[in-house]
Design a protein that fits this description.
Helix content: 25-40%
Strand order of the largest sheet: 19-18-15-20-21-22
Strand content: 25-35%
CATH architecture of the largest domain: 3-Layer(aba) Sandwich
Oligomer: single chain
Shape: elongated
CATH superfamily of the largest domain: von Willebrand factor, type A domain
Number of strands: 22
Length: about 450
């Protein structure tokens, strides 16, 4: 606890009384009646004792539990970079209006809007107040206790109380794109994120339904028995096969720590994986994930959109590390864990110096699986290519960038020649690019 302004004022007044008493004692000729000097002294002493006893009693009376109970509530889901409401509920036993200061010790890795507030508690009614936080980091973040400054009974002290236990929250990737996508119907979904839909009907696909013949349908699609019954031409409609398996290999190595705006390459990759995972689960496929390079985790393939929370809980606290990427190691590990033919999507930032380890890893994976490499490109490279070259230093930078990109194209051609599906994309465009390529693979029946 600490002294209030009221107590400080009482001490100042008491001190002034003592000063006046001293002046009357040492300079009796300065007042009208010198015989009053002892009275001033006695008054000063009595008020001092009374003030001291009052302060002691007021402080001892607060040793019991404060008449306040505080609870903190957050939403069910908290996403990185998104403002989230924090609700604080205050129950109290004060019998008169009481002004208190309240401060919630929010996580250090989160911005906060107005966590320190001064409120008046009204007798007989609870109080709810809100403020907002914006986590700047995924993973587990911790709230401290809630600090309260409340007046003592006589208002001579400001008493500090601590309420609510320390609590941890899970900060997930920004899944707003996934949640928004989930609310749209099929046609809107594909249009919203730029997915190119092309109908394919024919052999090797699962039967979906019967419908009237349309221009462009193959004669092989006509169901002659149904046409005879309906007295009009009826076609069979097919859909992509379901129950295929997609497994992501997520690189957590140091190359994924590069920044693209507020997000790292790793965060962009994670957002792309989550969106594609939702699309694949929606298509009836199973989705699994293995991370490597300092953060080794394995989630065996799961099926159904209801498993999205399981996937989110598996990856929400993953981060890029300073470790090197061991492609051969993760390929061997995956092959030991999973044998069923699947689409393996390696999400990484691959450069020409990685090919010595990458090519053996691809050969290992291709023994059982169809392999896709999703490669992130640094936006700064495109900025250099499109910037004017008007100095010698800029010319050197431009030439180095062109050579670097040429080397990456060599790597891409080498992978393509080996039968690897390659995707090169700027980090911000990776979600759409990845989903489009997946849909093409589905249409082509390559799994």
């Amino acid at each position: 606890m600490k002294p209030s302004n009221r107590l400080l004022l009482c001490v100042v007044l008491w001190g002034a009384t003592g000063l006046l008493s001293a002046l009357n004692y040492w300079l009796p000729n300065s007042i009208t009646n010198p015989d009053l000097a002892p009275l001033f002294t006695d008054f000063w002493q009595v008020t001092g004792v009374a003030l001291l006893l009052t302060v002691i009693l007021d402080s001892l009376g607060q040793l019991k539990t404060a008449p306040i109970d505080i609870q903190r509530e957050l939403g069910d889901t908290v996403a990185v970079g998104v403002w989230t409401n924090v609700t604080i509920t205050i129950q109290h036993g004060y019998t008169r209006p009481t002004l208190i200061d309240i401060f919630d010790h929010h996580p250090a890795d989160a911005d906060a809007d107005f966590p320190n507030q001064q409120v008046t508690l009204i007798p007989g009614s609870a109080l709810k107040l809100q403020y907002k936080i914006k986590p700047m980091k995924r993973g587990d973040l911790s709230f401290g206790q809630i600090e309260v400054l409340a007046p003592s009974t006589l208002g001579l002290w400001q008493l500090r109380y601590w309420h609510a236990k320390n609590s941890d929250i899970k900060v997930f990737p920004n899944f707003s794109a996934v949640s928004h996508f989930a609310l749209l119907n099929t046609e809107q979904q594909t249009a919203q994120i730029g997915i190119r839909q092309q109908q394919r009907r024919g052999e090797g696909m699962e039967f979906h339904q019967l419908r009237e013949f349309r221009q462009g349908d193959s004669l092989r699609q006509i169901d002659w028995n149904a046409s005879a019954r309906k007295r009009k031409i009826i076609s069979k409609e097919y859909q992509e096969e379901k129950d295929q398996q997609i497994i992501f290999l997520l690189d957590c190595g140091r190359k994924m720590r590069n920044q693209d705006g507020e997000l790292s390459h790793f965060d962009h990759a994670l957002n792309a994986i989550l969106l594609m995972a939702y699309v694949a689960l929606k298509q009836g496929d199973s989705v699994g994930l293995m991370s490597f390079a300092g953060q080794t985790r394995w989630l065996k393939p799961v099926k159904g959109v209801a498993n999205m929370p399981k996937l989110l809980n598996h990856v929400y606290d993953l981060h890029a590390t300073p470790s090197a990427s061991d492609y051969s190691g993760v390929a061997k590990d995956l092959l030991a864990r999973h044998n069923k033919r699947s689409l393996i999507i390696l999400v990484s930032n691959i450069r020409d110096e990685n090919t010595d380890d990458l090519e053996p890893a691809i050969r290992i994976l291709q023994k059982k699986h169809l392999v896709m490499v999703a490669n992130l490109e640094e936006p700064i490279l495109q900025e250099v290519l499109h910037s004017p070259v008007d100095t010698f230093d800029k010319a050197l930078t431009y030439a180095g960038t062109v050579e670097y990109l040429d080397q990456r194209k060599v790597v891409e051609r080498s992978l393509t020649q080996r039968g690897v599906i390659t995707v090169n994309s700027l980090p911000s465009m990776l979600p759409t690019t990845l989903v489009n390529r997946y849909m093409e693979i589905k249409r082509e029946g390559r799994l």
